[in-house]
Amino acid sequence: MKFFFTYDPDYALRLSPCPELDRPDGTRALAFLTPGLPLGLARVVLENARRQVRPNWLARCGLDGAVRRLGPAGRSGMEWSQREPRAAVLRALAASGLPAREWAWQEIRESRDLAPELLVKEEVFSTRVRGRQLSEGDLTRLGRELGLLEEDVLRLAELAVQSGAGEWVPALVRETAGWRCQRCGSKQVEEWPDDWGTAATCLSCTCLGSLTSRQALYRDRRRILVSSAFRFQPVGELNSAQAAAAEQLLDFMRGKESEALLWAACGAGKTEVCFPAIAWALSQGRAVLFAAPRQDVVHDVAPRLAAAFPGLSAPVLTGASSRRFAAGELVLATTHQVLRFHQAFEVIILDEMDAFPYAGGPMLAWGLQRALAPGGKILYLSATPAPEILQRARRGACRLIRLPARYHRRPLPVPRWVKLTMPWGAAGLSQCPPALAAELEKLVAHGPVLLFVPEIPWVERWVAVLRQTFPAWRIDGSWSADGDRQAKTARLRRGEYEIFITTSILERGVTIRGAQVLVLAADHAVFGLRGLVQMAGRAGRTADFPGGEVVFAADRRSRAVVEAIRWIEEQNRLAAAEGLLD
Questions:
Q1: Half-sphere exposure of residue 376, counting CA atoms within 13 Å on the CB side?
Q2: Which of 232, 267, 438, 517 has a CB 3.0–4.6 Å from the CB of 279, allowing a cystine?
Q3: 3-state class of 380 per DSSP?
Q4: Of 72, 107, 142, which one is at a domain's C-terminal end?
Q5: Across 208-255, where does the E strand assignment appear?
Q6: Does residue 189 belong to any structural domain of this protein?
Q7: Looking at 107, 132, 163, which one is the last position of a domain?
Q8: What is the pLDDT of residues 103-161, one digit of tens each?
C-alpha cells in the first residue's frame, strides 16, 4: 500500500492512501505528491521535513508557536505557508537517501464522493472492525466477506481514520537494535532489498499472512459495543467449591487487581465457574475475550458458552474459521487470532496458559497484552500452571484462586505405570505386542480409549496395526495437521470409536464420556510433567463415569512420569483436606 503526501488550502500536510478522500476541515485537498511511499518511509520523510522547517522558516516568519497537528486520525501535519510545505517535503526526500524519483505535485480538480451503495456498507464495516488490528491482506479478505472491492474497503478504512476512529501504522518499524513487528512484537525478521532500499518480513506471525515493512496495519480505536439485552442462563448448579471460586472471581472483577490465576484440577469445571464473572463484565458494558492456545479447546468451550448466554453474539475465531471478522461482544479465539486485536477487550480469560504454542511463545503473550484495553483485567485458567505465574502469585502480583476437586466430588484417577519394553516407534512395527493388547482389552471394556503417542508418524502406523489386531473395533487417529481433525473429534465426542490414537493435540479441553487413557512411551522426552497430567485428566471427567483409568506404558519411570503421578496425588490430598471429596 502506498501513502501520499496531501496538501490542503489550510496549509496542512497529511499522509493518506486515498488522497481523493482527504477533506480536512470540510475542504478538499488541492494537491498530492506522486509517486506514493510505504507508510514507514513516508513518516520518516515527514518528520525530517518538520525538523527542517521549524528552525529555518517558522522562526524567520515569527511562527515559532505554529501548531503541529498530530490529529486523532494519527496523521502528521503542520500549518505552513502555501509554498513552504511542498518545498520542505521535496528537500526531505532529496536528503533521505531514497532512490531518485520524478516527484511531482498533482492537483485534484474533481470531487469524488463515495458511491451510495458503499455508504450503506460503512456501518457494517464499522461493526466488523471495532477493536481490530488488520493487515492489508485482512482488509482484502474482509472486503470479500462484505462483497466489496479492495479499493472500496480501503476507502472505508481511510474514512474511519479521518474521523478519528482509526489509524494507520507501519507493519514493521526500525528500532535501535533492528526491526520490530507491530502485529506480534517479534524481532525475528528477514531483510531483503527492494526499490526503496532494505525492507524486512516478519518471520513469526506468517500464519496470519505475510507482513513486511512495506505494508501498513489498520488499527480501529472504537470500543466493541456490548448489548445490554443478553441473558445469562446457567446450565446446572455450581457445587459449594465451585460457587466459592466463582464468588472470588466476581470479587476480582469488581476490584482493582489486574491479574488472577484460577488453578483448578482437570475436570473441575473451571469454564463454568467463570460464567458469572463473564455475565457481570458484560452487564457493565465490558467486552470479553475467551482465548486458548488450541482450537480444540475453543471449539469445546463454544457450545457451553452458547448455552449459558443464549442469543449473545459470540464469534469463534480459529485458523479454520471461514469468517474471520464476525462481530461480537464475547469473542472466542485461539491465541494466534488474538494478534488481530488491539486494546479491544476490558476482560481477557486465557484458558490453558501453560499449553503450546502459548507457553514459550513470547509473541502470543505480547499479543494478549496488546489486545487488553487500558485498565483491563486478565484471568488465567490452568490445571497445571507454570512456575513463573505461581511465583507471581506468591509475590502478590497475581491473585490466586484454587479449585482442587472435580465438580462430581470424586478424586482424580491416579495413573498406573505399566512396564512395557517394545519397539515403540512407527518404523518396522507390524503387530501389537501381547502385553499392550491385553491392556487395551481391559480398558475398552470400560469405555473408549484415548491412546496418546509422542510423534505424528506413530499415529497412522498404530491405527493400521490396531485395526489388524482388533478388526471388530472402530479405530482411528488424528494429529495437528490432519485435514479431517474436526470431523474426527466430533465423532470421538459422540462415542463412535473404541480406540482413538492421537498426539498431544487432545491432551486439553476435550471431554469424552467414559474415556480411558493410555499413554504409549510415557517416558519419551516429548512428554513433560504438565502434558502427562493433562492427558491423565481426560479420564473420569463426567458424573456418570467419574472413575476412568489411566495407564502410563513405558520402559522406565521417567522423572516426568513420577512427578505427574505425585502431582495428581497431591491434588487429591488437598481436595480431601478441604472436604471436597465424597
A1: 24
A2: 232
A3: strand
A4: 107
A5: 216-220
A6: yes
A7: 107
A8: 998 887 665 666 777 777 888 999 999 999 999 999 999 999 999 988 899 999 999 99
Query: Of 456, 458, 459, whose CA–CA distance to 475 is shortest?
Result: 459
Are residues 146 and 324 in contact, defined by beta-carbon separation less than 8 angstroms?
no
How far is the CA of 345 from the CAs of 82, 131, 289, in angstroms? 44, 8, 6
46-95 residue pLDDT tens: 888 877 655 444 444 433 333 333 333 333 334 444 457 788 889 899 88
265 and 212, same domain (yes or no): no
In this structure, are 213 and 245 located in the same domain? Answer: no
Beta bridge partners of 288: 330, 347
Q: Please enumerate in sequence order all residues whose Cβ is within 8 A of that of 97, keeping only pairs 6 or more positions apart, or say none.
A: 197
Would you say 313 and 300 are in contact if contact means Cβ atoms under 8 Å apart?
no
Residue carrying the nine cell digits 516429548: 526
User: Measuring CA to CA, how many Å separate 110 from each of 20, 107, 159, 488?
Assistant: 9, 9, 18, 59
The verdict on 384 and 494 lying in the same domain is: no
Domains of the chain: total: 4
- pTM of the prediction? 0.85
Domain that holds residue 158: 116-220
d(CA 522, CA 502): 13
| 399 in the same domain as 298 | yes
Up-side HSE of residue 495: CA atoms within 13 Å toward CB? 6
